[in-house]
Design a protein that fits this description.
disordered C terminus
Length: about 325
């Protein structure tokens, strides 16, 4: 079958799939404490997600990353991973990975490893139990650390994703780095995105540019830029003193689109061709219109034909800058 090629000759080989909007945490920068979740009827069934992902694999997608919400709270989720594992076994799919908050890993790490998952990304912003409870609202750090240990014991490679939050985890930069080095985990810092309508003073106060974080690292360590690219937003350095690989995701300050090979599918069947643009394609309708996949495949190709060259966060940058200026004038900053 002809592979998925966008208008700028990029082969689409990476699909991020949200399998649920639900989560067992309520991280302050992600969700309100009292969320209203989608009606279950609006969500794709696990069988429908299998059909959709299998269509993408047939069309050249080689990497699937399963996300949420928290994907492991979806009832019966292992049956979906089992369905995807057949694509690993026949060689069509090169990698099946997971992004998780770690809360359910103690239960699921070994079954996931048995089904061919080799790597997981775990979101972890602090190693302080009280601060962890504060920022996740419902989370408990020991549960997550037990999950990470279970993943390690199952042979899964763990990458820690830490959102850089000014005034919250600035003082944990080096302890977090040291802990990851001791545990053998890679570490990626993510710049908080004060975008859209959620530009509260708290969110703006939390904005910690990663160029400042990197400069602080460079005061203590020798950083070597790596040429490694995954088609995604992270840029990597090696810390020469420890051999660690550290990533930086800076969506507001750097454009990372030139090699973008990915698209994102929501749990309701909406396909977003670009993180920074609102354009999306509804795949649920053609999926449910016929048990035959011809209409679905046609809809996927039509969507990829609309994938833009890159996102443009200039509007958001300007809006953020304006918000910050106004906020500082009100607070005497």
């Amino acid at each position: 079958m002809q592979p998925l090629i966008d208008p700028f000759a990029r082969a689409i080989s990476y699909l991020r799939v949200s399998v649920t909007d639900r989560c067992d945490f309520r991280c302050t920068y992600c969700m309100s404490e009292h969320m209203t979740f989608l009606p279950k009827a609006d969500l794709l069934s696990l069988e429908e997600l299998d059909r959709l992902c299998s269509a993408f694999v047939r069309m050249g997608v080689q990497k699937l990353r399963i996300t949420g919400g928290e994907p492991l709270v979806r009832k019966g989720i292992l049956t979906f991973f089992q369905a995807m594992s057949r694509h690993l076994e026949n060689g069509a799919l090169k990698e099946l990975t997971l992004t998780t908050n770690g809360s359910q890993l103690a239960k699921f790490a070994q079954p996931l490893a048995d089904l061919g998952v080799r790597r997981v990304n775990v979101s972890l912003d602090t190693l302080d139990p009280d601060k962890f409870a504060q920022i996740t609202r419902w989370g408990r750090l020991p549960q997550v650390l037990d999950g990470i240990e279970a993943a390690k014991a199952a042979g899964l490679r763990v990458k820690i994703n830490a959102v850089a939050l000014k005034g919250f985890n600035e003082d944990e930069l080096f302890p977090l780095l040291d802990w990851c080095a001791a545990q053998g985990h890679d570490l990626t810092f993510i710049e908080v995105m004060p975008m859209g309508e959620d530009m509260s003073p708290l969110r703006l106060d939390q904005y910690w540019p990663l160029k400042d974080l990197r400069a602080r690292l460079a005061q203590r360590f020798t950083l070597t830029d790596l040429a490694e690219r995954t088609g995604g937003p992270a840029r990597y350095v090696r810390i020469e003193e420890t051999g660690q690989k550290v990533g930086f995701i800076t969506p507001l300050t750097h454009n990372f689109c030139e090699s973008c090979n990915r698209v994102r599918l929501t749990c309701t069947g909406e396909l977003y061709m670009c993180l920074g643009q609102e354009d999306m394609a509804d795949l649920r309708a053609p999926l449910r219109a016929s048990p035959d996949d011809a209409q679905l495949e046609q809809a996927i190709r039509a969507a990829i034909a609309r994938k833009p060259r890159g996102h443009d966060f200039d509007y958001s940058r300007q809006k953020v800058a304006g918000q910050i200026t106004r906020h500082m004038s009100h607070t005497g900053g």
